[in-house]
């Protein structure tokens, strides 16, 4: 993957209604993206840990709504993999701890990026993308 291009230029074509889910999974799955954008702010994207978490909520609400309406076009395995990312991310945000008080912006972002549990979330997001055949 060419990480010098914006993240949306690195993905393969995907259905428009799932596009925003894929965008969030790409941001979560890529340590290089996180270091480039969250820590060094080298754009063109603007993102950081908290923003990544907050931007994941609407796609997950949409996905759960589609599941309830039985209008989802994904397999159970794909759905489970995507929802697992959301559950893991929520768990991390509520139980993963916080950076030390007084940490710089870069140190805060690196705390999240280097956390062992966040590495598991990255791997789960990568797995979900592989099931969606994005990677």
Task: Walk me through what this model shows.
- By secondary structure, this protein is mainly alpha-helical.
- It contains 6 helices and no strands.
- It has helices at residues 19-29, 31-39, 49-68, 76-95, 105-114, 116-131.
- Helix 1 packs antiparallel against helix 6 (116-131).
Give the key terms:
135 residues; mainly alpha; 6 helices
Helix-strand pattern: HHHHHH
Let me know the number of strands.
0
Extract low-pLDDT stretches.
Answer: 1-8
In angstroms, what is the radius of gyration? 15 Å
Q: Label the structural class.
A: mainly alpha
If helices are DSSP runs of H or I spanning 4 or more residues, what is the number of helices? 6
Average of pLDDT: 85
Instruction: Name the beta content range.
Output: under 5%
How many strands, what sense, and barrel or not for the largest sheet?
none
Please state the overall shape, judged from the principal axes of the Cα atoms.
Answer: globular
In percent, how helical is the residue content? 55-70%
The separation of the N and C termini measures 9 Å
């Amino acid at each position: 993957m060419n990480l010098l291009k914006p993240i949306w230029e690195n993905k393969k074509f995907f259905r428009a209604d799932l596009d925003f889910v894929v965008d969030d999974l790409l941001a979560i799955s890529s340590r290089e993206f996180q270091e480039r954008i969250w820590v060094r702010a080298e754009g063109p994207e603007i993102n950081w840990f908290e923003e990544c978490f907050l931007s994941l909520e609407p796609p997950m609400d949409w996905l759960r709504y589609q599941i309830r309406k039985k209008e989802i076009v994904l397999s159970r395995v794909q759905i489970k993999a995507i929802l697992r990312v959301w559950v893991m991310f929520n768990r991390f945000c509520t139980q993963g701890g916080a950076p030390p008080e007084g940490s710089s912006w870069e140190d805060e972002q690196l705390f999240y990026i280097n956390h062992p549990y966040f590495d598991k979330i990255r791997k789960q997001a990568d797995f979900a993308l592989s099931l969606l055949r994005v990677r």
